[in-house]
Amino acid sequence: MKFVTARLHDDEFIGMIQGEKAIHINKIAKERFQTDIPTNMISFIEHFHYFEHIIKEIIEEKGHDAFSYSIEETEILAPIPRPSKNVFCVGKNYRDHAIEMGSEQDIPTNLMMFSKAPTAVVGPDAPILRHEDVTDELDYEGELAVIIGKKGKSISKDDAFHHVFGYTILNDITARDLQSKHKQFLIGKSLDTSCPMGPFIVHKSEIENAANLHIETRVNGEIRQDGNTEQFIFPIEEIIATLSKGTTLEPGDIIATGTPAGVGKGFNPPKFLSSGDIIEITVEGIGTLRNKVQ
């Protein structure tokens, strides 16, 4: 099950991807099952257990043409266009990335967390602003993002995946000079359009092992990052358990799990982003997130 937030003309809806089509879940549920399904992805995730059986019936049924649209004719938005809170982000969760940003002494022994403002989120194919008046060091970070599906606090590692709804792709665009100047991450990580996300949320039932997914980032066709989530220093269950100690996680919360080595700053000389650059992040089992720097 791959879900999108899509727009066709003035109609914003939850779509389920089948092949090259997006099935308008809201319309088909209303007309065939007399059920109102939320058009807001956060609400859709929160109440998913109430209508999961309908989604499965839609998958098994045929004859969806009247409720299906070509992906090309719809505008695919970020799966969660406006998160209800900041995006949670894990810093330096790959050993080689920690080293390229400093040295072996920068490999964390405890989970590092920062966040990105909700206003930074944009969808696939949306332009990334270059922000030339603000930064000279715009950088990319391809990441697997976890979408929380069930509210919880003080979640154990053993129970962590029961609180996961699914997974998507996130590009943690970063202004490195602002990150260094302000001695913290929020400003350098929260510029408008600095959180491309999508194109889909893949339900957790479709991902056999989130701890073994290939992740690759290309800039203008050149492979820059080539990693695997098995290289995590802190696995997903530990991230959720640590983050939820004293902090309530809610449906629709987004956790970016960190980026492999190969960011622009890690090269000598650095390879920062320029206007016209095309960034493509592919995560096994999910798809490819593509955005162009404006």
Automatic annotation (TrEMBL):
Residues 87-294 form the Fumarylacetoacetase-like C-terminal domain. Keywords: Metal-binding. InterPro entries: Fumarylacetoacetase-like_C, Fumarylacetoacetase_C_sf. It holds the Pfam family FAA_hydrolase. One of its GO terms (molecular function) is metal ion binding. SUPFAM superfamilies: FAH. The keyword Metal-binding applies. Gene3D superfamilies: Fumarylacetoacetase-like, C-terminal domain (3.90.850.10). It comes from the Bacteria. PANTHER family: ACYLPYRUVASE (PTHR11820), ACYLPYRUVASE FAHD1, MITOCHONDRIAL (PTHR11820:SF7). Belongs to the FAH family. This is Fumarylacetoacetase-like C-terminal domain-containing protein. It comes from Priestia endophytica.
